[in-house]
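Morning run. Coffee first, then this:
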Amino acid sequence: MTFQLFMLAIALVLILEGAGPLLFPNKWRRYLSELSNQNQQVLRRMGGALVTAGVVILIVFS
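And here it is:
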């Protein structure tokens, strides 16, 4: 993987992460409030699922 490809991936993540607060700030605030009230085990499972999905997508498209 080249440095340029890595930076493009980081840029894409930042664009996707920033789209929610930019387009829907009130919904984003409610979402974060609900997320912060979740059980720690639920957050760990969500994080694990996201990491697993990312690894699978990375392997499939590599």
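The CA atoms of residues 39 and 45 lie 10 Å apart. Good start to the day.
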